[in-house]
Write a structure and sequence with these properties.
The structure is a single chain. Helix 3 packs parallel to helix 5. Helices cover 40% and strands 23% of the residues. It is globular. The longest helix is centred in the middle third of the chain and has 23 residues. The relative contact order is 0.15.
């Protein structure tokens, strides 16, 4: 049990940090902003539930490039390159390096703020891979499409009561997903953007998606 970090050739050297549970993983969460989210595996471990692995892809140090990688509307070519790295390269490495290849019912994609938009985008584009989306406090760069794809993954959204802009974004997504008959949870908590409620919510997200 613990953290493991590997550096890939993508974008001149991009790190991926993995949280390994004590037992063989029964679920896996692929996450943007991975340097932030992967260490939260410790809280998953103490919360009970099935052993869950977190594969956290680190963000770009350049904030503009981070936004372009996480939201498909700004720079489609940059988004597509990062999508291939995240969905294909990192996932295949996870299978070969750790022997973890789980069905979509035991696989989620997760993010917070801008990477919450990434989680939504990848979940909608790859529902055959990610059976669930964990999205906390999404930004407004990526909005619900006028015509929702089908099928849709299950989606768990959370936002803080003290971050009205991000709460409005999450609510917009929750309404659009429910209108498309997607299995959707929308939770509002006391908290500001970047607050500890993101970390505290992850075990609840995992229990909802992977509960035995």
């Amino acid at each position: 049990m613990g953290l493991f970090t590997e550096t890939f050739g993508y974008d001149g050297g991009r790190q991926v940090t993995v949280w390994l549970p004590a037992g063989p993983p029964e679920a896996v969460v692929f996450a943007g902003d991975g340097e932030l989210i992967a260490p939260w595996g410790e809280f998953l471990a103490t919360a009970g539930g099935p052993p869950t692995m977190i594969v956290g892809v680190h963000r770009s140090e350049d904030e503009t490039l981070r936004l372009h990688e996480y939201s498909p509307g700004f720079d489609p070519a940059r988004f597509a390159a990062h999508e291939r790295f995240f969905v294909k390269d990192v996932r295949e490495w996870t299978h070969s390096r750790f022997g973890v290849k789980l069905p979509k019912e035991h696989t989620a994609v997760s993010g917070v703020s801008a990477s919450g938009e990434l989680a939504l985008a990848l979940g909608l584009r790859h529902p055959n891979i990610y059976g669930a989306v964990f999205c906390a406090s999404p930004g407004a760069g990526y909005r619900p499409p006028a015509s929702m794809p089908s099928p849709l993954p299950r989606v768990y959204l959370v936002a803080g009561m003290q971050e009205p802009f991000f709460r409005d974004n999450a609510t917009r997504w929750a309404d659009a997903l429910r209108n498309a008959d997607a299995d959707t949870v929308m939770t509002e908590r006391e908290g500001t953007h970047g607050g500890a409620f993101w970390r505290a919510e992850l075990p609840l997200m995992a229990a909802w998606a992977f509960g035995r």
